[in-house]
Structure formats: C-alpha cells, structure tokens
Amino acid sequence: MATVHNSANKGDIAKTVIMSGDPLRIKAIAEKYLDNYKLVNSIRNIYAYTGTYKGKEVTVMAHGMGIPSMGIYAYELFNEYDVEKIIRLGSCGAFDERHKLLDIILVEKSYTESRFAYQLDESNINCVSSSKELNSKIGEVAKNNNIEISKCNCLCSDVFDWYVDDFNKFLSRLPKELDLEVAEMESFALFYLAYKFKKQASCLLTVADSHYKKEVLSAEERQKSLDQMTILALESI
Asked: Are strands 149-156 and 180-184 parallel, antiparallel or unpaired?
C-alpha cells in the first residue's frame, strides 16, 4: 500500500535499499548498475527504482537533504515497506586534517544536536551506531576490491557547517570523547530509525570539502568516488 510520500506498493520495494540525497544520482545508479529496473516512486521527484544486481533484488531511492527528509523516507521504508537494510551514499565535510578530499568514510557512530529522537518518541538519544554486521560486510568488500576506506564517527548537523557563524566555537561544544571527524546531515535519522525498528543501516561518505584543504574537486573526481561507494554498497548486499 502506498503512503502519502511514496507511490510504490509494498511489494515494489526490495528488502535492501541503497539511498542517496540526489534523485538524479539515484537515476544514474539504476541505469548504470541495475538489470530490469523499473521506476516505483516519483512523488516530489524522489525517485525510487527497483531492479536486480547480480541476481539480487535491490531498490535505489533518493532521500533528499537533512534529518527531516531522511526521517520521512527511512521511517516509511522500515515501518511500512518492511525494508531490512538501508545503505546511504553521501558526501561529507572533514573536520580532521588527516582526511583528504575523495577519501571514503564508513560511519561508525552519528552524533547530533537535533531533537529528532525526542520529538519522535521522547528518547533522549543524540548518538547512535550504525549496524556492525553491515559495516563488517562493507569492510570485507572494500578489502576484496582494494578500495581504501576509513572508519570514524560523524556529526549529523541541521546546518551546513560552512554556514556556522563561529566555526571554532561550534567545534568546541562537540563532545570530545566521540572524536567527530566529518560532518553530514542525514545519518542520525537513518541510524536511529534502524535502531528503533530493529533493522540494519550503514552510511558511506565521500569527503567533498575540508576545513584544512583548499582543493576543488572536478566532476570526474566526484564521479569516480561515487562509483567506488556504489560498488561497495551493491557488492555488500
């Protein structure tokens, strides 16, 4: 049965979903990697395609930008469509000078100052882990395909970190014990909903900007990194 945000019928969505923010990126992934794919949702241009990869059924779907948008789609996928696993592919900014542009990050924990969990079910939770089982599989695939990844904790922010008025003050209030090395805007909602519904979720990120590096990425460089993350996600299912 469709929802107000998703026109797919329940059987149209696979048990494993790969998500990314940009609907056109999702369209490109379906066209490049999936066999026998079909469009199962286009409400608000949040495209979802279901097809097969090496015989395994998978759905690729956009999630838009920010915790609220991810929260809507992940909630419905887990709760309404009986999805078991979601892997997010995204970009991040680096807080740590050790991370170079185009490095691939596998997120272990996501911390937020958002009140998402409290508003949803009055849980005072601001840090949640990704799936160890799914992360382990992604790590194994990375090793087998000679794709270098880094594992670290990330900040999931409601504000693009480059827009913060006083960046040093902002950094100083983040919990030091979590050693937050990168920032993005969706992983907390995904991980928390996986925790709530006893499902699995992981997040792969490409370092797209850094407070320590001044390089500018070309479109070709971004595409190569996206291709590597996509291969990691698809091979891991």
From this structure: parallel
Give the tokens for residue 208: 């797209």
Q: What is the pLDDT of residues 9-30, one digit of tens each?
A: 989 999 999 999 999 999 999 9
Give the count of domains, the chain. 1
CATH number, position 140? 3.40.50.1580
Instruction: Answer whether residue 3 is part of any domain.
Output: no
Task: Say if 4 falls within a structural domain.
Answer: no
E-assigned strand segments in 130-199: 149-156, 180-184
Residue 77 lies in a domain: yes
Please report the beta strands in the chain, taking only residues with DSSP state E, as ranges in sequence order.
16-20, 35-41, 48-53, 56-62, 85-94, 104-111, 127-129, 149-156, 180-184, 200-210
Kindly report, residue by residue over 123-157, the tens digit of the pLDDT.
Answer: 999 999 999 999 999 999 999 999 999 999 999 99
Active site residues per annotation: 209
pTM of the predicted protein model: 0.95
How far, in Å, CA of 154 to CA of 108, rounded? 8
